What does this fold into?
Amino acid sequence: MLEVKPAEVKPASAATGRKARPTAVPAEGVTIAEAARRTGVSVHTLRYYERAGLVVTPVDRTSGGRRRYRELDLKWIVICTKLRATGMPIRGIRRYAELVAAGPGNEEERLALLEAHRAEVLARLGEIQENLKMIDHKIEVYRGSLAAGEADRLWAPSITGAAES
It folds into this structure.
């Protein structure tokens, strides 16, 4: 469900002959570039999510100030991107992040927020399905007209009295 891409596969060691395998997020975390690759969002988006208050826990920093993302951070960023991809406004994601960061005691509000968003997604999905039906119908019209050798009868703005396009 929460799909964080695996870490880069390190080449097999010639000395040990061991097979290459992905490495887990090290205890000190991963760089912003690696976090971007693993979550599928840009470095700019990661910085924006942090500035906008969408990240539940503070992102660790090195002594030089560079961000280091933990596995928990990566999983949360994937949640944020899925909420955003389904149309949740930034303010809604921020509110959800605030509730999660606050800890136990607000689960009903979290649930209400997610249920309201789900209802909006379902409504949009219904609209998309209706639009898909129209597209499927148009595809069938074109296939039928092409198969019957009547494609020239399809409607075009410059032709009057033509069939449907």
Summary: The chain is about 50% helix and 0% strand. The longest strand covers residues 60-61.
